[in-house]
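During the first year of the project, the team set up a workflow for recording each protein of interest as an amino acid sequence followed immediately by a discrete structure-token representation. This format lets reviewers and collaborators read both layers of information side by side without switching files. As required by the reporting guidelines, we include two representative entries from the current panel. The first entry is reproduced here exactly as it appears in our internal archive.
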Amino acid sequence: MAFLVGVFEGDFETWKQGFDSDPLGRKQVARGHTLFRGIDNPNEIFLRIEFDSAEEAKAFQDKVRSSDVLQNVTVKVPPTAVELADQTNY
């Protein structure tokens, strides 16, 4: 299992409309996503998109980075392909 993670800041509602319109075909290649908003700053966006493989996550990372989908937000952490190293439930 691999993920694409990123942290952005901008008008959340505008960004979310663009994200939901899925301009890069995320829904055809990813398993799902998790979206978080900052409590102190609700325009801070934390995104995690899940993929079956590291290759798929890297390919989508390259697609996002070469597109203009992030042009209206401040990129704090660019879309980065990662693998799960540890997870524990309490």
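The second entry, processed by the same pipeline in the following quarter, appears below.
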Amino acid sequence: INTNNPIVYYTDSTSTDYYINSGKSGTQGIEAEYTLKQKWGHIAINYAYYSAANKEKIPDYEVEDDGAALMAFANHRVNLNSYFNIAKKLTISPTLSVYGPRYGYTSVDSTGTSVVEQLAPTALLNIYLRYETPLKGLSVGFGAYDILNQQFKFIQPYDGYHAPLPGPGREFVFRLQYILNY
């Protein structure tokens, strides 16, 4: 993928926002997916890899120590989506998203310079249990999200003079759903 004149967002030390069309940018990579659907359920797993090596980069988004990486984005990502029929009206749906290491601005030092660090890989594991009640259209579900309490961080790909934004932590959900058929 090559992009000419991408819109680049940046701020200065006074927190003034700017947008400019700047230069060229590109990545190369590969994605693969395997899906299996059977009467017992469904499994889909995919893998994505990208590299910015040997491609033009916007200086604001470059990672100084890693020519293949871009700020805030993992070079490797794996996703697993699935559901299994436990009984006639009972399903369980485990999902997993694994992000490889990411680089991001994590703080500002005593001189006012933003600090770039490599953040550890993150694995977001979720599970959802759903039961279709005998009452047509009514289902009950319970889920747990971010079971491993990874507390995913949203990293800006630009120097915004602040730490990564916190994502949701571990969550438990109860859902009562009724679908009206008109």
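For the second entry, the following points were noted during internal review. The chain has a mean pLDDT of 92. The longest strand covers residues 76-87. Both points are flagged for discussion at the upcoming steering committee meeting.
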